[in-house]
């Protein structure tokens, strides 16, 4: 009864007038901070409190045809990692692999040429950024790679072999060492254990099991009428053509999924519901492991895990979009903000909007 009353209070708080005030605030942020299209949401495990999409899909063409739509896709960037972790949890629960499975248990034929520093790395090490795989978090790192050919999954496999045959990061005292490439190595394990490509696993879990809409890559690569990402060129905010020579194929499982906000809300709600003790596609204990299984960064989620505070968050950007997600387990509320720009100015506006959302929602708690 108490939980039902809490949800009722939150829904009452977001009356049409309150939602309109928030929309005016968000749109003023959008205009002032040069964000062409902005979407945001606040929700509980089973109710959407507020959701909105504002602006235009590209900065240089602003008319009825390019006006923001609730079905618009936004690039999740590194928030894709939580989806990869989710799929790993799905395979672990189905006994296809375990968190403790070692890479070379699945690829023994690669061990003779590999760097000994990687002999003992596990699926958990890779997904929690504790395997000392080099990061590949910037474009310059990719420029030094050999040319990989074949399908996307074949190229990723060659990339993984290249990674484990070459230098590791130097050992250090950091809790974790963030690595996009580590997720490519982990995905090679998931593919080998399941007998399915990454693309097939996505289709099985996101589409068939969860009935979620998603795309791989920038939204405008498959539909030019979808949002265009933006960055600064010649000191001006510039929309990026779908034909721009820029791709994330080698690290796709680390950061290259796009979703409409409604579908992404559903995915995050599954996590929040699981953290609150309910089983769904995954067990509640698996969600708690994904979010809080390790200190600071577990599996696709940064975390604060203290007796009086349990929260998890992640930000994602490949330089052209930005996605931020925050889950407050204790208060049963989560927030999403997505934009098709990730400039310093845009981020300043995004976090001002986040502050306003949190103050509006959590003041009734």
Automatic annotation (TrEMBL):
What keywords were assigned to this record? Answer: Hydrolase, Membrane, Signal
Localization in the cell: Membrane
Entry's InterPro entries? AmpC-like, Beta-lactam-related, Beta-lactam/transpept-like
Signal sequence interval, chain numbering:
1-19
Instruction: Tell me the enzyme class.
Output: hydrolase
Where is this chain primarily localised?
Answer: membrane
Which positions, given as ranges, span the membrane? Answer: none
Q: Name one GO molecular function term.
A: hydrolase activity
> Under which EC number(s) is this enzyme classified?
3.-.-.-
UniProt domain Beta-lactamase-related: residue ranges? 30-346
Say which domain of life the source belongs to.
Bacteria
Pfam families on file:
Beta-lactamase (PF00144)
Protein name as annotated: Serine hydrolase
């Amino acid at each position: 009864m108490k939980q039902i009353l809490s949800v009722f209070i939150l829904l009452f708080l977001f009356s049409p007038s309150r939602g309109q005030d928030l929309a005016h605030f968000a749109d003023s942020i959008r205009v002032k901070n040069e964000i062409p299209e902005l979407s945001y949401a606040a929700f509980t495990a089973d109710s959407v409190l507020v959701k909105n999409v504002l602006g235009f899909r590209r900065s240089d063409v602003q008319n009825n045809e390019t006006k923001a739509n609730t079905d618009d896709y936004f690039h999740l960037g590194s928030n894709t990692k939580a989806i990869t972790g989710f799929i790993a949890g799905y395979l672990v629960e189905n006994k296809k692999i375990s968190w403790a499975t070692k890479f070379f248990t699945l690829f023994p034929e690669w061990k003779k040429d590999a760097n000994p520093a990687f002999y003992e790395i596990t699926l958990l090490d890779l997904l929690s950024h504790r395997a000392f795989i080099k990061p590949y978090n910037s474009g310059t790192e990719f420029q030094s790679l050999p040319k990989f050919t074949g399908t996307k999954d074949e190229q990723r496999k060659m990339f993984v072999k290249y990674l484990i045959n070459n230098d590791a990061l130097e050992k250090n005292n950091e809790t974790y060492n963030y690595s996009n490439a580590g997720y490519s190595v982990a995905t090679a394990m998931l593919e080998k254990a399941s007998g399915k490509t990454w693309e097939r696993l996505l289709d099985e879990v996101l589409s068939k099991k969860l009935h979620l809409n998603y795309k791989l890559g920038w939204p405008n690569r498959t539909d030019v009428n979808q949002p265009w990402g933006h960055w600064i060129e010649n000191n001006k905010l510039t929309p990026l053509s779908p034909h721009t020579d820029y791709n994330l194929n080698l690290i796709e499982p680390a950061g290259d999924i796009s979703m409409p906000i409604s579908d992404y809300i559903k995915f995050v709600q599954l996590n929040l519901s699981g953290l609150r003790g309910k089983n769904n596609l995954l067990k509640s204990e698996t969600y708690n492991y994904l979010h809080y299984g390790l200190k600071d960064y577990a599996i696709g989620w940064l975390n604060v895990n203290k007796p009086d505070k349990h929260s998890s968050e992640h930000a994602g950007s490949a330089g052209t979009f930005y996605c931020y997600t925050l889950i407050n387990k204790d208060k049963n509320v989560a927030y999403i903000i997505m934009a098709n720009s990730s400039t310093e100015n845009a981020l300043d506006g995004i976090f001002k909007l986040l502050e306003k959302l949190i103050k509006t929602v959590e003041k009734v708690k």
